[in-house]
Design brief:
The structure is a single chain. The chain is of the alpha/beta class and 353 residues long. It is built from 13 helices and 16 strands. The chain has two domains: 195 residues, Rossmann fold (3-Layer(aba) Sandwich); 123 residues, Rossmann fold, CATH 3.40.50. It has an eight-stranded mixed beta sheet, sandwiched between helices. The longest helix is centred in the first third of the chain and has 16 residues. It is globular.
């Protein structure tokens, strides 16, 4: 008899883990063991272990919380203790957490992130079904064989997304998650995982080369101790640029070591902010990403003040296909690793353009 895959469920809280609050709402409270116990038949798919890392709303997660989960997955995988892992958390920052895990893990075992849009006290709570689908995906033999190729996956509503492509597109709909440009990499039908695509992960190979591919523990134990706080500023109609000017003027830049600009359209800012953008770009990495959260930036179409050509000439780096949320995390890790400047860093961003 073939042994069942060993899947670790690591919980960080979120809507999937809510309990009744004191004022009529809900609050985080369920552990990983509680979540696993709520899924009938899970034991037929895998031998599941449960660990609770945190019990918080995902808006309260920090980069180091996610990196600590990555280190634990790496530890279990290196010891040969698991065949895959599922991370449960809130959906507010799920696309960010999945991307962080995707950057630092080596794909030795499949890692799937899931959660819920409806809390356990709701009618038709989606948490148990999503956890079941996530464990099925992590346990699937094809996914396990191709785990390094696929990278970290996000599974909700029987749809499998690649971490690089997935985004939350609604604050409340049960079908909130989409991969708007590339589409999902797979679906679950009956009791089968069906893969339909392969994500482009050239950025991962370039990131590993730029950072020396440190083990996940290196990101949390002080080995990689560079500054990693990155400001996220979104451009809008009539934006005065006051925050940009203040960042450039402050001797310590308010503690920020880099900036991501959520640019308009194909990668534009108002003409009157470009001098402050250039001043910042002389002092720290400034990355431009599309505020619309989907699609590649332009590189060589417009050449007016504040256009993609003009900003590149002023030292701004194009985030390419990355939305601002993910560009910020990539820049933060490059900064922490001391690899945000130079040819190696440019090669990372080049893969995304």
């Amino acid at each position: 008899m073939t042994e069942k895959p060993r899947i670790a469920v690591l919980a960080l809280g979120g809507t999937i883990a809510m309990v009744k609050g004191d004022g009529g709402g809900v609050k985080p409270g369920l552990t990983a063991a509680d979540l696993v116990a709520a899924v009938p038949g899970l034991e037929r798919i895998a031998t599941v272990t449960a660990e609770t890392a945190k019990v918080v709303g995902s808006s309260d997660l920090r980069i180091d919380d996610v990196l600590a989960v990555a280190a634990r997955i790496d530890e279990l995988a290196a010891a040969g203790a698991i065949d895959g892992a599922v991370v449960t958390q809130g959906t507010d920052t799920m696309e960010e957490s999945a991307f962080l895990l995707d950057l630092v893990l080596d794909g030795r075992v499949p890692v799937v992130v899931t959660g819920a849009m409806r809390n356990p006290l709701s009618v038709s709570h989606d948490g148990p079904g999503n956890l079941l689908a996530a464990v099925m995906t992590a346990a699937d033999p094809v996914v396990r064989r191709r785990s390094a190729e696929l990278g970290v996956l996000v599974v909700l509503l029987d749809t499998i997304h690649a971490a690089i492509d997935v985004a939350k597109a609604s604050p409340h709909r049960i079908d909130a998650f989409h991969s708007m440009v590339a589409g999902p990499v797979g679906v679950l039908v009956e009791d089968r995982v069906r893969l339909v695509g392969t994500p482009n992960r050239d950025h991962k190979r370039a990131f590993d080369a730029a950072t020396g591919h440190p083990r996940p523990t290196a990101w949390t134990d002080g080995t990689l101790a560079g500054p990693d706080d990155v400001a996220l500023l979104t451009m809008g109609l009539g934006e005065s640029g006051g925050m940009l000017a203040a960042l450039a003027d402050d001797p310590a830049h308010f503690g920020y070591a880099g900036v991501v600009l959520g640019g308009m359209g194909g990668g534009h800012t108002p003409a009157w902010v470009v001098e402050d953008v250039e001043r910042l770009a002389r002092r720290m990495p400034v990355v431009l990403a599309a505020r619309i959260q989907s699609g590649y930036l332009l590189k060589a179409t417009y050449e007016r003040l504040g256009s993609e050509i003009d900003l590149a000439n002023r030292g701004v780096v194009s985030g390419g296909r990355l939305p601002p949320l993910k560009a910020r995390l990539l820049l933060a890790l490059l900064l922490r690793a001391g690899a945000a400047d130079g040819a190696a860093a440019r090669s990372v961003w080049d893969t995304l353009n």
